[in-house]
Write a structure and sequence with these properties.
The protein is α+β, with helices and mostly antiparallel strands. 19% of the residues lie in helices and 17% in strands. It contains five helices and six strands; from the N terminus they run αββαααββαββ.
């Protein structure tokens, strides 16, 4: 459940893709209005699909973000989520040209970089840029040895693959 209301914002209703079977029989592509979206908002808001109830943009999750950062006002749709291995990732979709480089955009990106391991910036024309975050509180994952790595090193050259001489 969102920490704050969407208000008049309906950005996710247009910008996000939704797989078939959630709001209609076919996929809803990114950039296409949801079939329930009207000029007054979602006509099924009180009984909206579960995929919509569970979705939270970064603005909804962060009570401290000012209302100017709401996607319909900032021109940026920000998503943040916990990923496997304790990583935290964020994505910032530019809804209007130049918004990533605006004062509000730079401030939002700085905030996300401070709380994320990485931030992906997606421009309005679809270019993606990866920005490493500033978080360093995650523990490095112990990477297991691949199954094909032997735990012993044969001393007898006859046991080496293809009997190749050592370099």
């Amino acid at each position: 459940m969102a920490n704050r209301p969407c208000g008049a914002c309906t950005v996710c209703c247009t910008w996000l893709p939704i797989p078939a079977g959630h709001v209609g029989p076919e996929d809803k592509p990114a950039g296409v209005d949801c079939p329930y979206l009207t000029c007054a908002g979602c006509r099924k808001y009180e009984n909206r699909p579960i995929i919509c109830r569970r979705f939270e943009c970064a603005f909804l999750k962060a009570r401290a973000w000012p209302v100017e950062w709401r996607p319909d006002r900032s021109g940026l749709l920000c998503l943040s989520e916990s990923l496997p291995n304790g990583l935290w990732g964020s994505a910032v979709y530019e809804l209007a040209a130049g918004r990533l480089d605006s004062p509000v955009g730079r401030t939002i990106i700085k905030q996300l970089l401070e709380q994320s391991n990485f931030v992906v910036l997606i421009t309005q024309d679809g270019r993606r840029t990866l920005r490493p975050g500033l978080r360093v509180d995650t523990k490095p994952e112990r990477i297991p040895r691949p199954h094909f790595v032997q735990n012993h090193h044969p001393k007898d050259s006859s046991l080496r693959p293809h009997n190749r001489p050592l370099p």
